[in-house]
Amino acid sequence: MPGRIPTSRPLALGAHYLLDVTSRLLERGASPAPLLGEVFGAARALDAPIVRTMASLVPADPTSERALPGPGGRLGVIALIAMEEILASASRHGVALVLSLGNAWDDYGGARALVGLAGLVAPRTNDPRAFVHPAVRALRRSFVSRLLSHRSRLDGHGFGADRTGDAR
Question: Within 10 A of 49 (CB to CB), how many other CB atoms are there?
Answer without folding.
Answer: 19
